[in-house]
Amino acid sequence: MDPQKICFITCVNNDEVYQECLLYIHNLDIPQGYSVETVAVREAASMTSALNQAMQKSDAKYKVYLHQDVFIINKNFIKDILQLFEDPSIGLIGVVGSSQIPPNGVWWEAEKIFGQVYDSHRGFIEKLAFRQLENEYQEVDCVDGLIMITQVDIPWRDDLFTSWHFYDLSQSREFGRNHYKVVVARQSEPWCIHDCGLTRVCSDYNKYREVFIHEYLQDDR
Protein backbone atom coordinates (compact mmCIF):
# COMPACT_ATOMS: atom_id res chain seq x y z
CA MET A 1 0.00 0.00 0.00
CA ASP A 2 1.26 3.46 -0.90
CA PRO A 3 0.81 5.61 2.24
CA GLN A 4 1.11 8.84 0.24
CA LYS A 5 -1.47 8.17 -2.44
CA ILE A 6 -5.17 9.05 -2.49
CA CYS A 7 -7.39 7.25 -4.99
CA PHE A 8 -10.80 8.63 -5.99
CA ILE A 9 -13.08 5.78 -7.09
CA THR A 10 -16.35 6.27 -8.96
CA CYS A 11 -18.92 4.02 -10.59
CA VAL A 12 -19.72 5.81 -13.87
CA ASN A 13 -22.62 5.64 -16.30
CA ASN A 14 -22.67 9.31 -17.35
CA ASP A 15 -19.33 10.62 -18.57
CA GLU A 16 -20.49 14.22 -18.85
CA VAL A 17 -21.39 14.33 -15.14
CA TYR A 18 -18.21 12.44 -14.22
CA GLN A 19 -16.05 14.97 -16.05
CA GLU A 20 -17.47 17.67 -13.80
CA CYS A 21 -16.73 15.50 -10.77
CA LEU A 22 -13.12 15.19 -11.98
CA LEU A 23 -12.78 18.96 -12.38
CA TYR A 24 -13.37 19.38 -8.66
CA ILE A 25 -11.00 16.54 -7.76
CA HIS A 26 -8.22 18.00 -9.88
CA ASN A 27 -8.76 21.40 -8.26
CA LEU A 28 -8.07 20.12 -4.73
CA ASP A 29 -4.96 21.19 -2.86
CA ILE A 30 -2.58 18.24 -2.68
CA PRO A 31 -0.23 18.14 0.33
CA GLN A 32 3.46 18.00 -0.50
CA GLY A 33 4.68 14.47 -1.12
CA TYR A 34 1.22 13.07 -1.87
CA SER A 35 -0.22 11.97 -5.20
CA VAL A 36 -3.77 11.53 -6.49
CA GLU A 37 -5.23 9.00 -8.89
CA THR A 38 -8.77 8.48 -10.20
CA VAL A 39 -10.41 5.19 -11.11
CA ALA A 40 -13.70 4.95 -12.99
CA VAL A 41 -15.65 1.70 -13.23
CA ARG A 42 -18.11 1.43 -16.12
CA GLU A 43 -20.74 -1.15 -17.04
CA ALA A 44 -20.79 -2.50 -13.50
CA ALA A 45 -23.12 -5.30 -12.46
CA SER A 46 -23.58 -3.79 -9.01
CA MET A 47 -22.15 -1.07 -6.81
CA THR A 48 -20.39 -3.53 -4.51
CA SER A 49 -18.75 -5.46 -7.35
CA ALA A 50 -17.62 -2.21 -9.00
CA LEU A 51 -16.06 -0.87 -5.81
CA ASN A 52 -14.35 -4.18 -5.05
CA GLN A 53 -12.88 -4.20 -8.55
CA ALA A 54 -11.55 -0.66 -8.16
CA MET A 55 -10.28 -1.27 -4.62
CA GLN A 56 -8.17 -4.19 -5.82
CA LYS A 57 -6.83 -2.16 -8.75
CA SER A 58 -5.34 0.64 -6.62
CA ASP A 59 -2.45 0.43 -4.17
CA ALA A 60 -3.40 3.74 -2.53
CA LYS A 61 -3.74 3.59 1.23
CA TYR A 62 -6.45 6.26 1.16
CA LYS A 63 -9.49 5.66 -1.03
CA VAL A 64 -12.38 8.03 -1.65
CA TYR A 65 -15.49 6.28 -2.99
CA LEU A 66 -17.84 8.90 -4.38
CA HIS A 67 -20.83 9.13 -6.67
CA GLN A 68 -20.25 10.59 -10.14
CA ASP A 69 -22.58 13.49 -9.22
CA VAL A 70 -20.63 14.48 -6.10
CA PHE A 71 -18.47 17.58 -6.38
CA ILE A 72 -15.91 18.21 -3.63
CA ILE A 73 -15.85 21.96 -2.97
CA ASN A 74 -13.58 21.89 0.08
CA LYS A 75 -10.17 22.55 -1.46
CA ASN A 76 -8.50 21.36 1.77
CA PHE A 77 -10.37 18.06 1.61
CA ILE A 78 -7.24 15.88 1.41
CA LYS A 79 -5.50 17.64 4.28
CA ASP A 80 -8.66 17.39 6.39
CA ILE A 81 -9.12 13.65 5.89
CA LEU A 82 -5.42 12.94 6.47
CA GLN A 83 -5.62 14.80 9.75
CA LEU A 84 -8.55 12.64 10.89
CA PHE A 85 -6.78 9.47 9.75
CA GLU A 86 -3.88 10.23 12.07
CA ASP A 87 -6.09 8.30 14.48
CA PRO A 88 -5.52 4.69 13.31
CA SER A 89 -8.78 3.56 14.92
CA ILE A 90 -10.77 5.55 12.34
CA GLY A 91 -11.43 3.39 9.31
CA LEU A 92 -14.23 5.14 7.44
CA ILE A 93 -15.19 8.82 7.13
CA GLY A 94 -18.38 10.29 5.67
CA VAL A 95 -20.04 13.69 5.53
CA VAL A 96 -23.52 12.58 6.66
CA GLY A 97 -24.52 9.65 8.87
CA SER A 98 -26.64 8.40 11.72
CA SER A 99 -25.68 7.29 15.20
CA GLN A 100 -27.93 4.24 15.03
CA ILE A 101 -29.61 2.49 12.11
CA PRO A 102 -33.31 2.03 12.92
CA PRO A 103 -34.71 -1.53 13.09
CA ASN A 104 -36.37 -1.03 9.68
CA GLY A 105 -32.98 -0.42 8.02
CA VAL A 106 -33.90 3.08 6.79
CA TRP A 107 -30.98 5.12 8.12
CA TRP A 108 -32.41 8.59 7.38
CA GLU A 109 -35.31 7.86 9.75
CA ALA A 110 -32.82 7.66 12.64
CA GLU A 111 -33.32 9.92 15.64
CA LYS A 112 -29.80 11.37 15.46
CA ILE A 113 -28.30 12.33 12.09
CA PHE A 114 -25.02 14.24 11.85
CA GLY A 115 -23.22 16.21 9.15
CA GLN A 116 -24.13 18.41 6.23
CA VAL A 117 -24.12 18.47 2.43
CA TYR A 118 -25.47 20.52 -0.46
CA ASP A 119 -28.05 18.25 -2.08
CA SER A 120 -30.66 18.36 -4.87
CA HIS A 121 -32.87 15.36 -4.06
CA ARG A 122 -35.95 17.66 -4.00
CA GLY A 123 -35.14 19.01 -7.46
CA PHE A 124 -33.06 22.02 -6.41
CA ILE A 125 -29.75 22.54 -4.61
CA GLU A 126 -30.20 23.14 -0.90
CA LYS A 127 -28.06 22.87 2.19
CA LEU A 128 -28.97 19.89 4.33
CA ALA A 129 -27.58 20.52 7.80
CA PHE A 130 -28.18 18.04 10.59
CA ARG A 131 -26.82 17.92 14.15
CA GLN A 132 -23.68 19.97 14.65
CA LEU A 133 -20.49 18.30 15.83
CA GLU A 134 -18.73 19.50 18.96
CA ASN A 135 -15.50 17.61 18.24
CA GLU A 136 -13.42 16.91 15.11
CA TYR A 137 -15.62 13.94 14.32
CA GLN A 138 -18.72 12.11 15.48
CA GLU A 139 -18.67 8.32 15.70
CA VAL A 140 -21.73 6.89 13.93
CA ASP A 141 -23.30 3.57 12.98
CA CYS A 142 -23.32 4.35 9.26
CA VAL A 143 -22.47 7.00 6.69
CA ASP A 144 -24.30 7.84 3.50
CA GLY A 145 -22.75 6.44 0.32
CA LEU A 146 -22.50 9.74 -1.53
CA ILE A 147 -18.87 9.80 -0.35
CA MET A 148 -17.04 7.21 1.77
CA ILE A 149 -13.36 7.70 2.64
CA THR A 150 -11.18 4.86 3.95
CA GLN A 151 -7.64 4.21 5.12
CA VAL A 152 -7.93 0.40 5.20
CA ASP A 153 -9.30 -1.99 2.58
CA ILE A 154 -12.25 -4.11 3.65
CA PRO A 155 -14.12 -6.06 0.95
CA TRP A 156 -17.54 -4.78 -0.07
CA ARG A 157 -20.29 -7.37 0.42
CA ASP A 158 -20.89 -8.23 -3.22
CA ASP A 159 -22.03 -11.69 -2.07
CA LEU A 160 -25.15 -10.20 -0.47
CA PHE A 161 -25.83 -6.87 -2.20
CA THR A 162 -25.92 -7.49 -5.93
CA SER A 163 -27.71 -4.29 -6.91
CA TRP A 164 -27.34 -0.59 -6.03
CA HIS A 165 -28.73 -0.44 -2.50
CA PHE A 166 -27.27 -0.88 0.98
CA TYR A 167 -23.64 -1.00 -0.16
CA ASP A 168 -22.98 1.95 2.13
CA LEU A 169 -24.78 0.69 5.24
CA SER A 170 -23.33 -2.80 4.90
CA GLN A 171 -19.82 -1.41 4.45
CA SER A 172 -20.27 0.81 7.50
CA ARG A 173 -21.23 -2.24 9.52
CA GLU A 174 -18.29 -4.24 8.10
CA PHE A 175 -15.88 -1.59 9.36
CA GLY A 176 -17.52 -1.83 12.76
CA ARG A 177 -17.19 -5.62 12.72
CA ASN A 178 -13.50 -5.17 12.03
CA HIS A 179 -13.19 -2.86 15.06
CA TYR A 180 -12.72 0.40 13.17
CA LYS A 181 -14.57 3.62 13.90
CA VAL A 182 -17.05 4.93 11.35
CA VAL A 183 -17.24 8.71 11.66
CA VAL A 184 -18.77 11.87 10.24
CA ALA A 185 -16.27 14.68 9.87
CA ARG A 186 -16.91 18.11 11.35
CA GLN A 187 -17.44 20.63 8.54
CA SER A 188 -17.73 24.37 9.06
CA GLU A 189 -19.42 24.39 5.65
CA PRO A 190 -20.39 21.34 3.56
CA TRP A 191 -17.44 19.67 1.87
CA CYS A 192 -19.54 18.40 -1.04
CA ILE A 193 -22.36 19.11 -3.45
CA HIS A 194 -24.45 16.02 -4.23
CA ASP A 195 -26.31 16.96 -7.40
CA CYS A 196 -28.40 13.79 -7.52
CA GLY A 197 -31.68 15.32 -8.71
CA LEU A 198 -35.11 14.04 -7.72
CA THR A 199 -34.70 10.80 -5.79
CA ARG A 200 -36.69 7.66 -6.53
CA VAL A 201 -36.40 4.30 -4.82
CA CYS A 202 -35.79 1.35 -7.17
CA SER A 203 -38.05 -1.68 -7.16
CA ASP A 204 -35.56 -3.95 -5.41
CA TYR A 205 -34.89 -1.56 -2.51
CA ASN A 206 -37.08 -3.48 -0.05
CA LYS A 207 -35.54 -6.79 -1.09
CA TYR A 208 -32.07 -5.60 -0.11
CA ARG A 209 -33.41 -3.81 2.94
CA GLU A 210 -34.57 -7.20 4.23
CA VAL A 211 -31.17 -8.72 3.39
CA PHE A 212 -29.50 -5.95 5.37
CA ILE A 213 -31.81 -6.37 8.35
CA HIS A 214 -31.23 -10.13 8.44
CA GLU A 215 -27.44 -9.81 8.21
CA TYR A 216 -26.78 -6.80 10.43
CA LEU A 217 -29.79 -5.86 12.55
CA GLN A 218 -31.22 -9.22 13.63
CA ASP A 219 -29.27 -9.15 16.90
CA ASP A 220 -30.32 -5.53 17.55
CA ARG A 221 -34.02 -6.38 17.71
How would you sum up the global shape? Answer: globular
How large, in whole angstroms, is the Cα Rg?
16 Å
Report the order of strands and helices. Answer: EHEHEEHEEEEEEEHEEH
Largest sheet: 7 strands, mixed
**For the residues shown, what is the average pLDDT?**
95
Strand content: 25-35%
Please mark out the parts with pLDDT under 50 across 5 or more consecutive residues, or reply none. Answer: none
Oligomer status: single chain
Characterise the protein shown here.
The protein has 221 residues and is an alpha/beta fold. It has helices at residues 15-26, 47-57, 77-84, 167-177, 205-217, and strands spanning 2-12, 35-42, 60-66, 70-72, 90-94, 96-98, 113-119, 126-129, 137-139, 142-143, 147-150, 181-185, 192-194. The strands form 2 sheets. A 7-stranded mixed β-sheet has the order 2-1-3-11-5-12-9. Strands 4, 6, 7, 8, 10 and 13 form a 6-stranded mixed β-sheet that branches. β7 and β8 form a beta hairpin. The chain is globular and about 45 Å long.
What labels would you give this structure?
25% helix, 6-stranded mixed beta sheet, 221 residues, 5 helices
Describe the structure concisely for a colleague.
The protein is α/β, with parallel strands linked by helices. It contains five helices and 13 strands. It is globular, with a radius of gyration of 16 Å.
Q: Strands, helices and their partners?
A:
Layout: E1 2-12, H1 15-26, E2 35-42, H2 47-57, E3 60-66, E4 70-72, H3 77-84, E5 90-94, E6 96-98, E7 113-119, E8 126-129, E9 137-139, E10 142-143, E11 147-150, H4 167-177, E12 181-185, E13 192-194, H5 205-217
Parallel strand pairs: 1-2, 1-3, 5-12, 7-13
Antiparallel strand pairs: 3-11, 4-13, 5-11, 6-7, 6-10, 7-8, 9-12
